Amino acid sequence: MSASSPEASSSSVELPILNANDLRADASPPTIALVGNPNAGKTTLFNRLTGLRAQTANFPGTTVECRTGRLNLDGQIAKLIDLPGLYSLEPATPDERVACEALRGVVAGSRLPDVVLLVLDATNLERNLFLASQALELGLPVVAALSMVDLAEKHQIEIDASALSEELGCPVIATAARSGRGVAELTSALVDATRRRASPRPGEMLEACAGCTGCQYAARYDWAERVGAAAVRGTGEAHGQLTEKLDRWLTHRIGGLVSFASVMLLTFTLIFWVAQYPMEWIDLLFGAASSTVSGWLPAGDLRSLITDGLVGGVGGMLVFLPQICLLFFTLALLEDSGYLARAAFVMDRLMHRVGLPGKAFVPLLSAHACAIPAVMATRVIDDRRDRLATIFVIPLMTCSARIPVYAMVMALMFPHEPLTAALVFTSAYVLGIVAALGTAWLCKRTFLPGSTKPLVIELPHYRRPSLRNALLLTWDRATVFIKSAGTTILVISLAMWALATYPKTDRTEMPGEIQEQLTALEAAGDDAGAEVLEARVQLERSLIGRLGRGIEPIFQPLGFDWKMSVGVLSSFAAREVIVSTLAVLYGVGEDEASEQESLTERLRAARRGDGSPVFAAATCLSLLVFYTLAMQCLPTQAVVRRETGSWRMPIAQLVYMSLLAYVAALVVYQTASLVA
Fold it and tell me: Domains of the chain (ranges plus CATH)?
């Protein structure tokens, strides 16, 4: 397969013009729009071209996510935009609409692209050519990247890139982004494209089809079939045989479910087993940082602010970052391999039984990373009632923000048992899924009744996952998580420290019994014990202590003490904040040696007034169940309000999930306490 870039052949069938206005600006840097069908290899090519120079954001004035990166074109830096995957320039979903508007330069704050980089799947070329027939009519320079040619060759599919270039009238470069094959030639073609302008192709066929409903579609498909026949060699029979053998088990009614459960269990086991080492290193790093600050600064509010508020709060959350990264990494590998699409097919049968459409699986699956993009992904669901039901249950799926809470509980209960921790961790995931499906069943039989539509899903080819692609995606998602969650956690951690430190209580204002204990400790020469006792009394009489004591009766039936109650309240905006809140509250008032301990060590050593551990097994399970089911995410509620156009849905979610979480945690704690 070689690259070629001849002029359009005069014998080629002409295509209808989409009449895009030429709004391109000559100012630097040039903008290149990356366009292609879903699963065409677009993201892999984007990662290969941009590397770590990518950023994830929304299109201006929309909630549609896009990735932008910098690309070096012969010394000139170009902007590469990865548009959402689409099958046609006649949009059927909000994401496709924004992608089409971006190609025409009518998205607020953006301009018409200078070049269109069209990605064509070499393993399924003919289907990709429908979009190509429209992209060629935009009046913009087009460079076609024939993706996954290495996979096509393995499947006995050969494509004549020169013949395809003749038919399309634009450069066609055979590429294999995983190995870097053809990337240099593609970059060179992009350099040439940014230096020239293309005229729209004539529209004789549009005139010929005037007044004929459906003729344009038929003409495009006929053209795609003819072009495909001229360029494609081979049948791909080897690919079909391999796919059938694998799908015979992975999409089986029973075997598929067993495979899915096994893959998830193996994934979580590896996450806990591998993540424990970097978690220990991060723990030691923040412990050393706290010790260093304590050695530099004298005892006082400034040292406490840095060690307890800043280092303790932020470090308490970042210690669980390895598990979050490993989750993103394994999901990227599974998606890249083509397996997750099979999982969607297998789960479709179950989803139909609870009243959800097959298209709801993708948003529900993406909710395991974050509920916000999952809510926006429901736009692919055509029926409004089905979409509302899916949005309502999405927050019940375990997202990455819950992982720090889960990991904290696992570290408290099973510090040296990764397999047991993985089983309990998987159970939390299953609980969220069961709760979501059960709630969907209830919704579809009460206030959102209606029939469900069958699932139509594209099953991508099986392929060896790209380690590089998975690492880049993990880096991107982890960076977004740290930036979004880290800012919130830092602000709340510092606020929690201030509320736990002020107002100051003079010793003379303390109860007489406490004063007597302090005097006795000092008389015995135990100045450190006196200091710890005084600091604990100070914490209990602070603003946060008074608030915690006030709300403690509400959460006491769940096994939560006043500090945990404050953690629940502080994590209303973001559920992962409870980790940093507990790190602050269980760090303030401790002696210097305790301040240098890890969060899990401090929590494990915490005792109630009767000497029993605060984080007993029953309490840990109760906390796990509560955070599995509770809403605790203000940004998600804001997005739900924006997507539904009303506050009714987010308020209903908050009330329902809070009651569900409270009742479930109550049952778990009381039952576990009786058994214990």
Answer: 31-238 (3.40.50.300), 255-444 (no CATH), 485-675 (no CATH)
